[in-house]
Amino acid sequence: MDLERAYDRLLENPGVVLLLGGIDTGKTTFGIELVRRAAAAGISAAIVDAEVGQSTVGPPTTVGLRLCADIQELTRESLLVADELGFVGNITPRGHLLPLVAGTARLVAKAREAGCPMIVVDTTGYTSGINGQSLKYHKMQTVRPDFVVAFERGGELEPIVGISHRFTPAEVLELDVAQEIDVRSAEERMSFREQQFQSYFATGTSRWRVKPTVFMPTLPPEFDMRLLDALVVGMEDGKGSCVGIGVLEYDASEDFLRMVSPVTEGVRGLRLGSIKIDTDGRSKGPVDMRYLFRSE
Predict the structure, then answer these.
(1) What is the predicted pLDDT for the residue at 255?
(2) Residues β-bridged to residue 149
(3) What is the pLDDT of residue 188?
(4) Are the C-beta atoms of 293 and 217 separated by less than 8 Å?
(5) Residue 218 in 3-state DSSP?
(6) What's the CATH code, domain 189-292?
(7) CA-CA distance, 232 to 159, in Å (whole number)?
(8) Containing H/E element for 62?
(9) Which residue ranges make up each domain of the chain?
(10) Other C-beta atoms lying within 10 Å of the C-beta of residue 118
């Protein structure tokens, strides 16, 4: 199917549209254009961005929901600020399938509650192997898409397209990846991620002392607070929603942690992520939480 026919088909029957494809296949560009066309046709639409490493809505490490009815001009810049977030805690789905699937499903439900007939769900390029297939299968089971749009380069999506046909009632639209799509290097993808983190923290940050009792998972007795320095955390409101992210900062002089974040209100608990960054967005590497907590 060509692009124009795909747009026409989806606009004729607004519903939940799940975008599947590998890295740099044009999913995000297609999704934004679909929402733009929906708005032009008077169809209320939302984007649920589950691309945790190359986020369009909200900062990396999160799933972001953007309700698009009030956006005058739909651009990537206008999508940056999320209406709601789901914290995943890393920039890759590997090892984080449950929070990624649960967060995506919850935000799709929020978009439905908001009365959006068109909900576009962007996903990561993690499509290969058993874990990639399992991630997409469980996402389809929880999101319940009306349409699956598969961006294929060669036969890389055949297993997942087959799963879509056999295990869901969704209508599957298969599109060839356009030849003009740029394939970015690992360095370019890292640079984009750093810019997204940077943009998030550039809105202004505050610092305040954090009690060791507010974390999930709960810190064990005599836990070494230094191990959490520079760790990304999700800021939860106690009602099931993430209101933002922050970075922990260890104060060696008094042995305590500070939170560094643009969010200052509505926070009741902090979920520990598994990646460290500075507030300029530069990565300090992943963290093995099992090692930190000396547990399985």
Answers:
(1) 87
(2) 19, 173
(3) 92
(4) yes
(5) coil
(6) 2.40.30
(7) 34
(8) strand 62-67
(9) 3-176, 189-292
(10) 25
Tokens (6 digits) for 101: 């699937």
Q: Report the distance separating Cα 79 and Cα 56, nearest Å.
A: 7
31: which residues sit within 8 A by CB, 6+ positions away?
A: 17, 19, 47, 120, 122
End-to-end CA distance of the chain: 47
Q: Is the pTM of this model over 0.90?
A: yes
At residue 87, the pLDDT reads 97
Residue 257: enclosing H or E segment and its boundaries? strand 256-261
- Using CA atoms, how far apart are residues 160 and 137, in angstroms rounded to an integer? 8
Query: For residues 52 and 82, is the Cβ–Cβ distance under 8 A?
Result: no
Using left for φ > 0, alpha for ψ between -120 and 50, and beta otherwise, residue 287 falls in: beta
Q: How many whole angstroms separate alpha carbon 19 and alpha carbon 26? A: 10
Mean pLDDT per 10-residue section of the chain, whose length is 296 residues:
93 96 91 93 95 95 92 80 95 93 97 96 92 95 97 89 96 89 88 92 90 92 91 95 96 92 94 93 87 70
Cβ partners under 8 Å of residue 48, min gap 6 = 57, 63, 64, 65, 104, 107, 108, 111, 119, 120, 121, 122
Q: Please say whether the beta carbons of 148 and 125 come within 8 A.
A: no
Residue type, 60: P
- Give residue 240's region: left, alpha or beta (phi > 0; psi -120 to 50): left
Q: Which pLDDT score is estimated for 72?
A: 67
Which CATH superfamily is 3-176 part of?
P-loop containing nucleotide triphosphate hydrolases (3.40.50.300)
* Ordered DSSP codes for 89-118: -SSSSTT-HHHHHHHHHHHHHHHHHTT-SE
Residue pointed to by tokens 């093995």:
288
CA distance 278 to 66: 26
CA distance 27 to 23: 9
Tokens of 132: 């990639």
